[in-house]
Amino acid sequence: MSWLPEFMNSGRLWVLALIPLLVLAYVIILLRRSQLGMRFTNTAVLDRIMPKQSTWRRHVTVAMMLLSLVALSFAWARPVGQEKVPRERATIVVVIDVSLSMKAKDVSPDRLTSAKQAATEFITRLPAGFNVAIVELSGKPATRLPPSTDRGAAQRAIGALELKEGTAIGDSITKALQAVDQAPKGQDDKPAPAAIVMLSDGQNTEGASPAGPAAQAKQRKIPIYTIAYGTETGYVDLDGKRERVAPDKAALRQIAQSTGGKAWGADSASQLNNVYKDVRSEVGYEDVKTEITAQWAFYALAFAVVAALGAVSMAARWPS
Hints:
Helix content is 45%, strand content 20%. With 320 residues, it is an alpha/beta fold. The strands form three sheets. A six-stranded mixed sheet has the order 5-4-3-6-7-10, sandwiched between helices. A three-stranded antiparallel sheet has the order 1-2-11. Strand 4 (131-137) and strand 5 (142-148) form a beta hairpin. Helix 1 (18-39) runs antiparallel to helix 3 (55-76). The longest helix has 23 residues, at 293-315. The radius of gyration is 31 Å and the shape is elongated.
């Protein structure tokens, strides 16, 4: 069952086998009480022997006792849950589309300028120990900054990006994976966890299909987080001809989902800033397994308190 946690000592769950036995014993007791009641025709005598009690209250009390035992059994088996904790180090490759469609002005002042501003703020707010690489997405993708903790260098690399022809999304993923390989290793000689954050507003027009490089990223456990930037009505004037440049949200979503990442859409500068906040929460934290015995012990205590209150209410002779 998906709602059940993992357990560090799952062998201790044998104690749960006692629960059905207790339920069976409770049912037998109820049947014996019913048979005993049928033997007495004098209700006054029966009331003195077996005082009336609220049936539903008794059932709820027993149910709470059993649930308390279940929760205690889980706690004894040392359950394990997941908790988000800040990463100590990581390599983040920021891929920014610089194709000619990025000069569209449906986002003020234009797509590329607002994208560069948002990306600069994004990397500035990343943990200082994170390595950041900058890759430009065009017909011929290039690494403008190898992985570095120098935020000033990253800002200058983003600021120097200029419009170019073509949109080779597949090749840009390959270039981003190569940038990951350039990241320095830790003291344990192991590479840091990596992620690719890709902002694009167009379709793949040349180079390799994104499917192959995305499969490589998945194999290397490097998620790709994609941002489809721009509005459906965006346009640019090229060679005297007006062309619509709506972002290919479906293609970018497929890339993200195939690698274990997430996909967002943004059609304004403010939305883009909010998206980068969500991205930062994704890449800045990792899921770590942690013991949650105390949590299940608390559940057991809560069930036991309710059961105790029910038992006290049945034992007391409340005035009618």
